[in-house]
Design brief:
Layout: H1 7-19, E1 24-29, H2 36-46, E2 51-57, H3 59-66, H4 75-83, E3 90-94, H5 100-106, E4 110-114, H6 125-130, E5 134-138, H7 146-160
């Protein structure tokens, strides 16, 4: 998919956006089992600027963070699904546990995380703010999470066995 691009290409595009005075918003996550909470979160993030870039953890990164058995959906499919959302302009995969390196390279105008984070916990916040950008914590959509969805699926499976 053309909206999933390499980090070097994303950095070049970011520079063009900066020259064109287009505000870039960046967020990141695993986005395993895409759900309504993800869609609403990404739409709200996109409303904060002109372009929305989304960093997605690779499969290896998700497994290190979430444990064996995760992700459920592979990185290429997760990236393609997120990139297909109207709110998303570009998707980039990253293999580290955090997106700090990408955030330091992009220095987005707005760095966004969900309401399950406190500002002091947001990786890259200090770098973005030092460069004149801002950090926004969006409200958490209660009852909409990948872990909750997995639990619901397992509960339905258990009932049938």
């Amino acid at each position: 998919m053309g909206r999933v691009i390499a980090e070097t290409d994303l950095v070049e595009e970011r520079e063009a956006a900066r020259l064109g005075r287009r505000a870039v918003v960046f967020t990141n996550g695993c986005f395993d089992l895409l759900h309504r909470g993800h869609a609403e979160y990404l739409a709200a993030a996109r409303a904060l600027g002109d372009l929305l870039y989304v960093g997605i953890n690779t499969d290896r990164s998700v497994e290190r963070l979430k444990g064996a058995g995760r992700p459920i959906v592979g990185q290429d499919d997760r990236a393609a699904l997120v990139a297909a959302l109207a709110a998303v302009d570009r998707v980039v995969l990253f293999d580290e546990d955090t997106p700090r390196r990408i955030i330091e390279r992009l220095l987005p105008d707005v760095l966004v995380k969900g309401g399950d984070y406190r500002p002091a916990e947001i990786v890259g916040a200090a770098e973005v703010e030092a460069a004149g950008g801002r950090v926004v914590v969006l409200p958490y959509l209660e009852g909409r999470s990948t872990s909750g969805l997995i639990s619901l699926i397992l509960k339905h499976i258990d009932r049938r066995l």
